[in-house]
Specification:
By secondary structure, the chain is of the alpha/beta class. The chain is built from nine helices and 29 strands. It has helices at 13-16, 37-42, 59-70, 91-97, 121-135, 142-154, 171-179, 181-184, 188-196; strands at 4-9, 30-31, 35-36, 51-54, 77-82, 85-89, 105-109, 112-120, 157-161, 163-167, 206-207, 212-214, 217-218, 223-224, 227-229, 232-233, 238-239, 244-246, 249-250, 255-256, 261-263, 265-267, 274-275, 280-282, 301-305, 314-315, 320-323, 334-335, 340-341. Helix 3 runs antiparallel to helix 5 and helix 5 crosses helix 6 (142-154).
Length: 344
């Protein structure tokens, strides 16, 4: 019987997640209000098979990976994926449906393709050597070259499985994937997955008489006194009276005071952060960020970790505030659409 080993590749956040500083691992990213990617991956029963995590950014990392492939894993068949595409599957079904062949198999989950592949050790070693050479001097990461430029175009067959796959390879995809939660919960297959998750948080969320929640999710321990629409509110967030949050993802511990408006934005973890009264962030203007036009598009804005926004501030659409610098910005603080600001 063939022996299997799973390799998950972790990309550097510096390329695709500007402003993220609280973690360097996608594994530890918060997702869907109360969980982390690690919580979701545990449901995939990936621990039932040998697996390894590799971050491949420089030549020594490629050499380490090559040595691992030549070493003592004892496996002759490898499953290859990356943490930016979290794939939840039944591994027993996966191996039962795998056809014995020398080529590359690509997993489809219903109608949804994934970035999960299965291939023999010899083939994977050849690919790693080839991609490693192409990565030298390239402006693309090893993972991008491996998954987007090679495996995507060179698989031999499709393996159809039940399961769920979500993409968050960039900050924009991460924001969008969180916003997809209300519609995903209409999917019975996804709902079964979600119901199996065990939240480490127990405090109840609350919506006051003045609060309104429309097509949104409110995490444990969060309090809503204003309006939340088409948004995802993570755990331990406070939304003040007459505040409006629309089309946005608010990560834990943010405090949004009375009269503030957050639109089309991602607020990263907010320990010690307050969006003060009548401050405004984002908008639905079709504008790209001047520094990251490919990542912050369609007016999407990011506010980095732990930066207080003074009252009456106005952060435009397509803006990026890096965070983890000044606790409080000049008052009132104004940023034009499409601009970036690095705190000191």
């Amino acid at each position: 019987m063939s022996k299997y080993h799973c390799i998950l590749f972790e990309e550097s956040l510096q390329r695709s997640f500007p402003g993220f500083q609280a973690t360097s691992q996608v594994y530890d990213f918060p997702i869907w209000g109360n969980y982390t990617v690690r919580n979701v991956l545990e449901l995939s029963n990936i621990s039932s098979m040998p697996h390894s995590l590799f971050s491949v950014e420089e030549r020594p990392d490629i050499e380490t990976l090559s040595e691992f492939m030549s070493g003592g894993t004892g496996a002759d068949i490898f499953v290859v994926g990356r943490t930016g595409n979290v794939t939840v599957v039944d591994w027993e079904d996966f191996f039962r449906l795998r056809k014995a062949a020398s080529g590359i198999g690509k997993v489809h989950l219903g109608k949804d393709p994934s970035e999960l592949y299965i291939l023999p050790r010899r083939r994977l070693r050849e690919i790693i050597a080839d991609v490693g050479e192409r990565a030298e001097g390239s402006n693309k990461s090893f993972c991008t070259l491996l998954f987007n430029d090679y495996l995507f175009h060179n698989f031999d067959r499709i393996i159809n499985l039940e399961g769920y796959s979500f993409l968050m390879r960039t900050c924009y995809e991460y924001w969008r994937e969180n916003l997809n939660l209300p519609s995903a919960l209409q999917n019975e297959r996804f709902l079964r997955l979600y119901a199996r998750l065990l939240s480490p948080y127990t405090a109840k969320s609350s919506v006051s008489e003045s609060g309104t929640v429309i097509n949104s999710f409110v995490g444990c321990g969060s309090r809503v006194k204003g309006v939340v629409e088409d948004s995802i509110i993570f755990h331990d967030v406070h939304i003040g009276k007459n505040a409006h949050v629309r089309g946005s993802v608010i990560l834990p511990f943010n405090s949004i005071e009375d009269g503030a408006v957050i639109e089309n934005a991602l607020l990263l973890e907010g320990r010690d952060r307050v969006v003060e009264r009548n401050a405004r962030v984002g908008g639905f203007t079709d504008v790209r960020n001047g520094e990251y036009p490919g990542l912050l598009q369609n007016g999407f804005s990011i506010i980095g970790h732990g930066v207080t926004l003074p009252r009456n501030s106005h952060i435009g659409a397509g803006c990026l505030v890096y965070g983890r610098g000044e606790k409080k910005l000049p008052s009132p603080f104004v940023m034009e659409d499409g601009t970036s600001y690095r705190t000191l």
